[in-house]
Every structure is written in C-alpha cells, then in structure tokens.
Amino acid sequence: MNTLTMKWLLRREFWEHKGSMFWAPAIVAALLVLLVGGTVLYGLAAHGVPNTVHINGRLVTHDALSAALPPEMQSKVSRLAGAMYLLGGAPLFIVLAGVMFFYCLGALYDERKDRSILFWKSLPVSDATTVLSKVVTALCVAPVIVLVLDVVASLALLFIGTLGLSLNGVHLFGALLTQPDLYLQPLRLLALLPVYAIWALPTIGWLLLVSSWAKTKPFLWAVGVPLIVLLLVKWISYTLENFSGTPLNIMPVAQDVVARLLTGVVPGIWFAFTEGIPAAIRESARDQGPDMGALFEASWMTLLTVQAWIGALAGAAMIFAAMRLRRWRDEG
Fold first, then answer.
1. Tens-of-pLDDT digits for all 332 residues of the chain?
2. pTM score, two decimals?
3. Cβ neighbours of residue 232 under 8 Å, at least 6 residues apart?
C-alpha cells in the first residue's frame, strides 16, 4: 500500500466530510464555551465584580470566601479541576459517536448511490486501500479532531471558571498550573486511541459491511437486522422454555453481540462490556475525587479480555468482506 496514496485518500475523506467531522463538533465546542463563558463574562460586564457572593441564600464577602478555602482546600480543588477539566467537553464525544455511525454507514453506500464509484474505480487505487482509508478516518482522524477540540474547549471553560473565582477572591491559577494532571490528561486521552479503535472495530466493520451491501435504506438494515434477530432469539428462547421447561440462556450473549455491533463507536463503552469501572476507583472517587490515571490503566486493562479481541477479529472480518463486496457491487 502506497503511503502517499493513503495520505491523499485520507484528505479526500476529510474534505468530503469536513462538515460533520470538523464543523459539527467545532460548533458544539463553541456553543459550550459561549454558553458558560458568555454567561460569566456578561455578568461581569453588566454588573461588575460583586462585593458579596450569594451561597445557599447567604451573603459571603470576598474575604470570607477566601478564608473558607484555605491553601489545603485550594490545592484539593485545583487537583480536582486539573483531573476533570476535560469532562467539560464530554458532549463532543457524543457528537463523535453519532458522526462516526453515519459516516461509516454512508461511506460505501453513497458512492454507489451517486455513481461516483465509477470515477474512483477508474483510478489506480485498490478496493482494499479505499476501504482502509475509511477505517483509518473513522478510528483515527475523526477522534483526534474531536480530542483537540475537546482540549481547547475544556481549557477555555477552565480558564473562565478560574477567572470567575479569582475575581471573587479565590485565586487558583498558581495552584492549578502546578497540577501534573493538567498536562497529562490530553496525553492520556490521546493514548486511549488504540483502546477505542479495538472496541470500535465491530461497529465500524458492521456499518461498512452494510454500507457496501445495502441497495437502499442502509440505516434500516444496520439497525433493523440486529434488533429483529434479537427479537427472534428472545421468542425462540421463550418458546423453548415454555415447551421444555429449560431456558435457552442465550439472550445475554445475543444482547452483547447486538450492543457491540451498534454502540462500539461510543467512547468508554468498553467498561459496559467488561466488569465495569473497578470498585477501587469508584470508592476512591467518592472519597478523594476520580483517579484519572487509574481510570486510564483500567481502560487499557480491558484489552486483556477475550471480549475485546473476539469483537476486533469479527470487525476485521466484516471489513474484509466489505472490501470484497466493493469489488463488484457498484450499482446505484
């Protein structure tokens, strides 16, 4: 596979889907910053810095508010802010899941629908390379774009919140800038990209397979077929249990398969298919705030489970089938 060819194919995917991959999450990020930051800045511009602050119906002066947060408490607040500030852009990852679902669903269907596949097949680019470019776009390019936008929006929200506290007598800038998590969190998020790719492969493969095969209404095929199969399994299990008295006990497996096919592009979904977030991390979060380093390690530990690699192999097989189908299914 030619590296230069792959580079141009990735550019093609970005140019063709720039609206959904970049502008949609960018607009959501801008709205997040404007809604929060705009409210704070408008209040400061319209009313200035108040001499007192209302907390639970009580008037608190700046000096009292600063005294209520001694250096130890300010350090704890700064540590929590540094560990959790990227959650400010969490809605962007919901947008990412939706964008990736519909991007993969239309990746191979749309080029057959508008007959542009005839042009692309006239170029010296193999079907495997073309499909792989769409896989790389879904698993790497789009998540990295959203990650960068999340960091920018979250830092903006963190700055606005810290500025608001500073104007009310609580100065956290110094303590916040000394927190290692402030700098490590973006790197940890980027390092989770391989985990996301492994767990997203079944959904990516299934959607590309449907996109390469469906003649019309790929959404109904992609969502309807798994749900209908799930209902049939439930009906068969219920019928056998009524006649023989012995339950079939395959519903949990069927539900997991359907969930892997449809929800794998949701970041963090790996905890739903394993044992969940470890109890030690949950208990630590209640007492001292979330340990994002431990959560990062727990995410990587999910790759030691059989579920992760069975799904990844199934996804790879479906991607290979999509490559083969694209070779001959070029009708509009």
1. 578 888 989 999 999 999 999 999 999 999 999 988 778 776 665 554 455 555 455 555 555 555 555 666 667 777 888 888 888 888 999 999 999 999 999 998 988 887 776 666 667 788 889 999 999 999 999 999 999 999 999 999 898 888 877 776 667 788 888 888 889 999 999 999 999 999 999 999 999 999 999 888 999 999 999 999 999 988 888 888 777 767 677 888 889 999 999 999 999 999 988 877 766 565 555 555 667 788 888 899 999 999 999 999 999 999 999 998 887 755 44
2. 0.86
3. none
